[in-house]
Each structure stands twice: as structure tokens, then as C-alpha cells.
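Collaboration report, partner site 2.

Our partner group contributed sequences for two proteins of shared interest, and the home lab folded both. The records are reproduced in the order in which they were received, starting with the first partner submission.
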Amino acid sequence: MKKVVSVLTTLLLAGSLLFAGDKGKSGKKPLIGVSIWSSTDTLGSQCKRIIDAAAKALDVNVMYVDQGHISEQVTGSAETLAAAGCDGIIICNSASAEMASVIKTCTKNKVYCAQFFRIIDQKANPIEYKFACQSPYYVGAVHENEIDNGKNLVSILCNKGCRKIALEGWEAGDATFLLRWAGYKAGIEDWNKNHPSDKAVLFDPQYGGTTSDTGRATAEAIINSHADADALIVAGGGGDTLVGALAAIEAKGLKGKIKVVSTDFLADLDKQLATGGMAAESGGHYCDPLFAFMLVYNAIKGNYKTSTNSFYEITFPYLYVASSADYAAYAKYFVADLPYNADELRAMAQLSEPELAKKAASLSIQDVQNRRK
């Protein structure tokens, strides 16, 4: 990941349509900025694809800033997008502490803001949480239950016979990684409590950044320091970290011997599941930024009222695949196509916030199948 803020701008030609919102009365189309770790890696490119589809369906301009989860670039991205005239932004930050600066920038410039794949933890970051509640321009957050996700992945590994589990994170202190790690540890505790004579161990994490090269080097270091490891959790990081880790395992002749689980779907997940490269994976829907986009879109329009004592929160269910059969249905509705078409995206934008949250909670392979009948 180059430590340079690369601004990827997709500006659709304005059609001088009247936009009924505080920022739309001038007649210009709204501009929503997207601050993301990468708009080109496995997960980031999927996020961009669904955001672009929503922007086209709703006649909205979008502007991307790739910030690599580098703290100063995360905070700088909000300043860049505000200076570019964005009416709202959605952001996938790294540490929750960065959000104080982001929210300050958005409030100062009267730019609506929502997080995706993230929420500020009230207990761990009470100051930032209070700041978010108090700002009328912080709209809300879209995220998963990361602790349950972590517990589920550990349960899958333990049930597959793994007892010595290594862990590769992507950035020490990252808000989402810390929650997943808590889940992994809780999963180990549950297993050991229920199987006192057959206990499992979770090794301390090493960090592989967000590129395939750093992911591979870190996986090699983990294998060298834990020669008895029979499983590896690659916690996330956008997908490229996992690509590198799998390459390291295969190069050492350990493919299938070290069972790998991760959160972030690979482009070749079907092949990896069939050949033993992956044991299971969670994630897959890549729609957090879509729903954050809808929150900001409706705040700009004036449909979702913001407050100075709370914010909106949308929780997503994870998808899990552990076989090629599992993946086949996923590939049909989430890879070959998008889970929402243009008409559905336009209808989604008309939902109330409780209805939008309900829509997010219902997303699954079966949900898409039912809508495509």
C-alpha cells in the first residue's frame, strides 16, 4: 500500500436536476465522498462496485480517497473530501480515536458523515462516542457483530480438529480487529470450558498490513515461530493480506495442513475451498458502505433527522461459507451479479431508517434468491 493519498474521482456529468435537500437547493447533484483503505483490492473493489451502482441509480456524484488505514491519511481524507465540496462522506477508519478529527472536520464544514465496517465503541472510546452523539453531522455507523464473528470462526476451526491457532491481524489497535480478537479469545474460552481434556490455544497476533507482500512476510514469520500451528486466522485487512498469507503457506508445502479462516472473501474462494487453501470464510456481502451511503444520502435530503445526543446504528449479519457448494450460491448473487438491482436501490433510498436497518438485517443468499424469483 503506497503511503500516499490517492484520490480516485468519479464525477458523473451533472444534469442540473433539482435536489430536495439543504445542499441540493442550488440545483447541483449531491456529492458523496468515500474514504476507504483501498478501492482496488478484493474487498475494496467490491465496495466501490456497489457504491457506484447506488450513485448511478440515485443520480449522485461520488469521489474516492484511498487512505491505506494510515492514521494521518484517514484524518486527512476527511479534510480532502470536505475541501472538494462533498455534501456527505462515508468512511472506513482504522482506530476510533481518528473519528474525533473526522467528525470535527465534518461538523466544521457541515458535511454529513457515516462510518462503514466500523462503529465507535462506547466503552473503549467514550470521548469519541460522546463527540459523535453530539455532532448533528455525524449520521451513524454500519457494522457487524465482530465478537460473534470471531467466536464462530474459532468454533469452525476447533470442530475441524485444530488446537493450536495462530493469528494474523492487519493493524495493531484497529477498532474492528480488536473486536474480532475479543471474539477469537471468547471462542477459545468457550471451547476449553466445554472440552477441558481437549483444550485449544490461540497465539498472540502478528500484523500483516494490507498488502499481499506484507501479508506473506508476516505469515512466514508466524509459521517460523509457531511450527506446531495447525490453523491460521487471517483477521482481515481487505483481502490482499490473506492472498499473501495463503501464498506463504503453499510455498512452505503446508497447504491443507494449516487450516485457514478469514473475514474478507477472496476472488478465487471457490478454488481455495476445493483445494484446501481455505477452511472457511466469513464476510462476503460487502454492503456496509451501501447502507452508510443510504444514511448519508437521506441526511443530505433531509429525510433522516440527525440529533445532538445520539446517532443511527445498523448491524449487518455475516455470511459464512465452508465448502464449494456454499460458495456456488454466493457467487451467483454476489459475484456474478450485485445483491441489489437499480430498482431495488432506488426503493431502498425511500425507506425510513428503521426500515433500512431491517433491510440490512435481512440480507442473505436466501434473501436475494427470494427477490430474484
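Second partner submission, folded after the first:
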Amino acid sequence: MNELENNNKGLSGNQLKIIAICAMTLDHVISVVYPNYPTDWWIILCHIIGRLAAPIFWYMIAEGYHHTRNVKKYMARLFVFAIVGHFAYNFAFGISFVPFKTSCFNQTSVIWPLFLGVVGLWLLDSQKLKAWQKTILVFLLAALAFPSDWSSPALLVILYHGRNRGNFKKQMLWMLVWIGFYALVYAIFINPLYGLLQMAVALTIPLLKNYNGQRGSFKGMKYFFYFYYPIHLALCGLLRIALHGNVGVMIGG
């Protein structure tokens, strides 16, 4: 069966990424325009739609690791992207570029745990490391991911996606487990309603279930995202300043 036929019977990686980009953009714009965790039903709905973004990126990162021809180049590209993403994300939401100056939450973008997730999968696949060494390294990576958007669970979801590739039920179950921990911490330390809202990641499961394993016809999608991500955040930052002045609009700012 060729790629075109597969695309007619499911969602390609490119189609999933477009859904994620749209959901992410809506979520970020709403966060900038309506800060401080408002509870209007339509704002909550927009944020629920926004929860579709991260799970798609986590899943596709694990898929990208499996399909890449050069994992070291893949890691290097994500590392550079994480550095650029740090400044774009923090500017968008009024968070200090210097980590931990104001908080331990949301100190950098979700791209950081995406990078760490690929590093983690590479280490777990290493034949040179012993099991106890791999365990220690995963704990270290989780600690490094903690201050980012979606925190340590983002890393752990990627690792469990990668290690359970081919077992979709197990992948989704562990995603819900790790995000459940994240939602609990969010509810306790930040906002109860918005903590519960994080569990809307479950809405992504039917979309991921329909992933057909194909990249899609547009080969430049990954480069499009690399450019789109910082540019849309920079525009969000300008919108934030125009509406509210140079102040933080979410926890961490």
C-alpha cells in the first residue's frame, strides 16, 4: 500500500502537526490576551483545545527518534531549537530569561523536554550503559526537565512512548498516568481548575490512534515548525506588551 493510500485511511504526521500547531497557537494567544487563569467557559474551552498540542508533539518526537537516520544530528537540531525556543517562550509570557529568578515553574519552553526526551531514548538504547546507570540518567534528565513547560512528565511520556512503540494502549495509559501527576501538582500549587484541565490531553488519543505511520507529502513540515514556533511566540510577546505592558501573564513570570 503506498503512502497516498495510507493517507486516505488515517492522519499523516504532517496533518497531526497542523492540528497541534493550530491548538498551540490558540492556547498561547488566549493565555496572553486573558491572563491570570480566568474561568469564563469559552476561555476554558480554548485551553481544552490547546491541550491537543503537546501530546501530538511528544508522540511525534518519539516517532521521529525511531525514523531518524542520524540521532546525533536530530539531538543537535532540537538543542538549538530549545535555545531559540527558550527566549521566544519567555518573551511571549513575560518570564525572565534567567531561570529561577521568579519561580521554578515554566522557566523554559516545552522544546527543552522534547530535546531531553530524544537524549533519554538514545541513552536507554545504549549497549554501553548498565541498567542502573540508565536509571540514574533518567532521573537526572527528569530533574533537568522539571522547570520547563509541562515539566518532567513531558520527558517521561516521550520515553514511555518510545519504549512501548507498537503498544498504543500502553503508550496512552502511561501518558495519562504521568500527566495525572502533573495535573495534581498544577492543581495544588497553581490553580485547581486549570490543574484538572490538563487531563484534556486524553482528547488527543483518538487523533493519535488514527495516525497512519506516514510523514505526509510536505517534506518541509519540520522546518516550517522550527520557524513558526519562535515567530508566533515573538508575536504573542508583542501582543502581551501592547495589552498589558511588560509584565508576566502566567505562573513563572
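Feedback sent to the partner group on the second submission included the following. Residues 221-244 form the longest helix (24 residues). Confidence is low (pLDDT under 50) at residues 1-7.
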